[in-house]
Amino acid sequence: MKKLSILVAVAGLCFANLNTQAQGLYAGLGVGYGFPSCVQANPYPASSTTLGTSSGSSGTVTGSSYSGGSGVSVGVHIGYMLNKNVGIELGIADKFTNSIATTQTQAYQADTLGGASAGSGTGTTTIKAGLFSLTPSLRIMAGDDGDKMRPYMVTGLVIGFPTYVVDNTMSGTEDFGSNVGILSQTSTDTYSGGMIIGFHGALGIMYSLSDKIGIFGEVACNLQNWSPGKDIYTSTETETGLGGTLTDNTTTTTTYGSSISTNTNAKNGTEVFNGTASTFNYNGGNGTSSETITTTATTENVSETNSRNANNTYLPFSSWGITIGVHFNFGGGSSAK
Fold first, then answer.
1. Which residues contact 271 (CB under 8 A, 6 or more apart)?
2. pTM of the model
3. Per residue in 132-145, pLDDT tens?
């Protein structure tokens, strides 16, 4: 909502100054839709089914691809024509990326889960992304002032501030004969940190309705990837059955970098048991872990906190799309677009 408020405020400022006579000053607002481009393989398949038996398992997996750059975009821009053919401008846009949902199902028989005689499970993964961006650009207009229709080209940079969240849910059962266990898990990966520096290009046509107002349509392409600074993973897993309940809460913070240090031989840890409670701390490898367990006759609660370092990962935000909108010429004459 804050980003939309910025767009509305900029648009309002443009309208408020519609009658000014700043030679060459122009502004516009538009709405568009972006389609994924330069995609990468989705680590979560579009669908998968696995049937397990005591001798093995078989199934089907359907792959998919994705880009965080697809979806509806709303934006405004303001610029200044240096002459009738060349101008400079700044665009501000907010892209609402489509959610990408995938489903996995499993069915298993004896000896596939800790002695369970049968069971099944279903999981759903949803990727949600967004992008607030600034686009400093150069505008090149064809034709002359006074032409009703003028082709144009826009080229420049994209400076983006993305969001990227992956939600997972899983539920299932396992049958131990007289006892049926119920499994459920929810988890979220929230990526943050860093910004996008990419390339923006567009080809369009502007049609003047008057010397003050016109309409435009364009085809645009944004080439951009995002290397987040960190990922915070939170998970809650619950298992009921067999006379008790197990709850496991996990938080893992992953910090990304171009170079990381590892020490796989340093496994210095302490573990202290105190009645029905225990704590465990671990330092080594490329991270640290801390775990606390509390138990009663029918419950066990596990709380884990982990931190780790990893090499940079890259998330795709490239897209191509279509935008339509309205422009306002503050300086008089069609050179303001």
1. 278, 279, 280
2. 0.75
3. 999 999 999 998 87
Provide the domain limits for residue 37: 2-97+127-164+189-231+312-331
pLDDT digits over 253-305, tens only? Answer: 999 988 776 554 444 444 443 344 555 555 555 667 777 777 766 677 778 88
Distance CA(316)–CA(41), nearest Å, equals 10
Closest to 221 (Cα-Cα) out of 110, 330, 103, 320: 320
CA atoms of 208 and 216, how far apart (whole Å): 9
Question: What is the separation of C-alpha 61 from the centre of its chain, rounded to a whole number of angstroms?
Answer: 23
Tokens standing for 13?
């400022």
CA–CA separation, 92 and 11 (whole Å): 10
| Element (DSSP H or E) covering residue 113 | none
Strands 299-311 and 244-257 turn out to be: parallel
Q: Is residue 106 part of a domain?
A: no
